[in-house]
Structure formats: structure tokens, C-alpha cells
Specification:
This protein is α+β, with helices and mostly antiparallel strands and 82 residues long. It contains two helices and four strands, in the order βαββαβ. It has a single domain, classed as 2-Layer Sandwich (Alpha-Beta Plaits).
Length: 82
């Protein structure tokens, strides 16, 4: 499995409760696509949300997000970390 960071734009004003709800929706279906979301972060001022996951492909990540109503605008592989 590979690690991916995905980015969502246009979510200005997102609250912690909304972020939790979106993350919970992803967690509810992630197993069906072989994805494991680790964490989500948001900047309500810019409207940017970031999600970190382990997944078989970026397409699998996008399928989860699309199914839960918030498709990612960008999905980046993260091949190195320390």
C-alpha cells in the first residue's frame, strides 16, 4: 500500500464538527476500497482540507471521497517520510 495526501478546496468556513462528519463518512466506507484514512486537517479561512491515507491507488482514495460526497481536488502520492 502507498501513502497519499489529498486536498479539497472550496470548503471555507468548515467547522470541526463538519470535518469530523466528513472524516467519519470516509471511515465508514474506506474498507470497501482498501483505503485506510489516518487523519484529516482543515483551514476554515482558506477552505482547504487535507487527508492522509494508505491506499492501493489514488483512484481508490477518490472513489471513497466521491462516494461520501466530497471528491478530492488533488491527490498526491507521498513516497518518502521521516
Amino acid at each position: 500500500m502507498a501513502k497519499f495526501m489529498d486536498v479539497h478546496h472550496g470548503m471555507a468556513g468548515i467547522t470541526v464538527e463538519q470535518l469530523k462528519e466528513a472524516h467519519a463518512a470516509d471511515l465508514a466506507v474506506q474498507g470497501e476500497e482498501g483505503v485506510q484514512f489516518e487523519r484529516a486537517w482543515a483551514d476554515p479561512e482558506s477552505g482547504t482540507v487535507y487527508c492522509l491515507s494508505d491506499a492501493p491507488s489514488k483512484e481508490a482514495v477518490q472513489r471513497v471521497h466521491s462516494r461520501t460526497g466530497h471528491p478530492a481536488d488533488e491527490i498526491h502520492p507521498v513516497p518518502l517520510s521521516v
